[in-house]
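Dissemination and training. As part of the outreach component of the grant, students in the summer workshop were shown how a complex can be specified as a set of sequence lines and then modelled as a single object. The example used during the hands-on session is reproduced here so that future cohorts can follow it. Participants entered these lines:
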Amino acid sequence: MRALAGRFKVTQEGIVFALACVLFLGFAASLHGFLTSGNIIALVRSVSILGMLGLGMGLVVIGRGIDLAMIATMVVAVSWAFSLAQTGMNFDLALLVGAGFVIVVGCITGILVAYADVPAIFTTLAMGLAVYGVGRAYFFKIDVQNVPDNAGWFSFLGVGRVLGVPVPIIAFAILAAMVYLLLRWTRFGRFVYAIGDNLLAARIAGIPVRNLIVAQYVVTGLIAYAAGLVMAASVASMSTRIYNSTMIYDVLLVVVLGGVSLSGGRGNVRSVLVGTLLVGVLLDGMTILNVSYTEQNLVKSIILLLALIADSVINPRDEQTAQQQQGDI
Amino acid sequence: MLRLIAFVLSAFFAISTAYAQDVGLSNAARRAPYYDGLKGKTVVFVPLAMGFDLTEGWAAIMRRQAADLGYKFEIRDPNWSTDAGTRALTSLIAQKPDLVIVHNPDVQSYSRPIKRLEQAGIKVLQVNLESSLATDSYVGADWVKVGYVEADALVKQCGPGTSGKVAIMQGVPTAASNLYELFAYHDVFGKHPNMKIVSEQAANYDPAKERAIMETVLQQNPDLCGVVGNWDNQDVGAGAAIQQAGKTGKVYVVTSGGGTKDGCDNIRKGLLDMTVSYNVPLQGDILNQQIVELLLSPAKAGTVKNTYYTPLTILTKDNLTPRNCWSLSELK
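and obtained this result:
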């Protein structure tokens, strides 16, 4: 096994990609109507928002953090913007207010993690509750906010098409390209990897570690906000109830599945795309097969377990990974 | 002489005022026990969550009557968490309110705590989503009937000459509304051989999830004839997918809901075709009636089992009147 791994450099990303291909071919051969352009577009479209959130989560996980407040930030900021617009504020201005809120939340989270040294997993867990609570108590009373009537161009984000491709897919593609460029070609991106790989070494090397961590949470929040806007545009409303759903775990699933290591420093945009693809193929195939809700959850969890087992067989723990401060979460 | 006239006049006024005091009846014998019997009582509402049309509507109406009649009305909001709801109910056993109004997340979870409430002498009124355990009263939709009405409407739309293909959109699989409706759907569609159920998926009250499911179903079955759904708030997702596919009017979407203005707007926009409305303002009035009846009744908790199935209104594009479509600001 290890010799094999050495020769082909088997990675978790590779395995998941192979798995996605096998499933894809299997469904294509056995399910009538799976391999049509319409269905493929529907497949990608249905996971594009999950993928966008995965990109944001991936970024912060690579920097050895985690943002469990993503969904809360997304639903509260978007709902607040909508409710402001419904009470007469200019819609574009309301969207800016929402973005401002996201930046404030990202800064608070980042400062708590970077300067107060509170572990990210607890900070963001608490921040999620706080953000949701503040939103429900003070910003809006009804938990589903409809897109206001003065929204104009906004619905294009959700239902528009460019050259036959739905806008959510295009938004996902653009965001993936942006995050790729950010991680790969900017100083910020390289520093995120450096922090994720070894925080102390990064600090000794002179990287402004704390400011970077704050920036990381702000960027992730903004990505979540963008995903939220696309999501709201496609169903003409934002339901804050999804904060109570398992969506945040689905986002983590997409990220971890593709091989972004929870201990930081490893993974890239491609890993997130591969993870999203696998989840998309699975969900689409199971919907066509009319598999029941509980069985779908079961299949999803089994796939995740298999991916984790495969990872630990191919990349066994060694002294170095075991010694990492945070270890596996 | 003048003195005599003054005396007569004053006597006349005295008599007439005394007489005026006796005009009409105080009805104290009936009014006193009614108002005194309600004053100072405590009613607690445990909804699925606050913040959505149904619970906000009921609460607004119940709160108004409580303020008017002088009993205490409290809300314990578990915010979609069955755990938090169970804890709230358990803590109520010790707090001993006079009446607990329960909105069940599913048919099973609350059946033990509400039984213990009744054993502790606290009356339990269930609203719109029932538990498998019957308590003092249930006010809400007859979900089996809602299911029959919805399914019959689709049978009419998707008769011979159409593909007869229908998709069922479940809500939360274990909720009362879902289980009872499913029974009716399958019962009706089973009796019509031309009806084919091509998809049966749960959207968990989430319109975005339902939209994704619907998109896939439409790809598989471009000739889909109709959709029956669990709740208008989630089924706008199916409507959005149908609209995006350019099939508005070709796929008939039937659902149920509380009849809010937002829901009516979605019918007007063509996202939904027909909503079986259980009319929240009417349910609120009936809840108020049941609250008074249960608070005043000398019967012990758990001895009477009332059921009141609220009337259903069928909403389509043709009858979206203000009477059928309510908004929260009107109720407050």
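The first helix of chain B runs from residue 2 to 21. Students were then asked to discuss how this feature might be tested experimentally.
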